[in-house]
Amino acid sequence: MKQVIILLIGISMCLTGLAQTDSTAKGNDNENDTIRVGGMIIIKKHKGNNNNDSSNVRTYHRDHKPSRISTNWCIIDLGFANYNDQTDYKSSAIQGPDGFAPGLGKDQFKLRSGKSVNVSIWAFMQKLNIVKGIVNLKYGLGIELNNYRYDDPILYQTNPTVVVLDNTRNYSKNKLAADYVTIPLMLNFNFTPHRKHGFGLSVGASAGYLYSSRQKTITNTDGKEKEHDDFDLRQWKLSYIAELALGPVKLYGSYATESMFAKGLDQRPYNFGLRLSN
Question: Rounded to two decimals, what is the model's pTM?
Fold first, then answer.
């Protein structure tokens, strides 16, 4: 709505300027009329004499000058969450008497891809100009919310953490949620530094601190249940991250450097999706 209002004001200014130009006296036919609207310059050149008047209107767009520091507030990521499962399910750490998931295999940990989602809310992302707006340092602060939806009725038991297959109930929903406070740090390459919405690439790493984790289930017998525990998840998550800017459209992706579990399972999470920012 704000952009529409600004556009309407700009159009009104243009029309007002043109109307004033038409009503001026023709004492000096060679003078030009110049109107500035935001980053746009409109120049009306007058030609001719008393017998034959003509004019030429040209519109110029002023280049966007990259600032030393630029800040975006409240960026939202909407995407999908999954993991690369490299667990050795035949090992004693999984199948032994004190194993993490006895009797289970890779198939039981498969996710519902369309239902496993990642939503991140970045309080801010800031870009520090290093080389003429082409090379920048990009950093920020936000929270990552990851929901892993399971196909099979696996259940996390606590103290100690053991994963079992629960066939005694019918599950309509079964997910593991892991939420992090995250700081990203990237090297940004802006291929069109004089455009507000240009083309660029950012690569780097992020560090996330696990502040909340839980398993949420909905079954036919017990309804909705939530179990809050760390489930032996790592307290810290280090990830490789990247962002691709295609004009007004931004894509993001991340891949963890190691398993999200401190023991037992070797599942390395990754996210990808659409980044919404101004």
Answer: 0.77
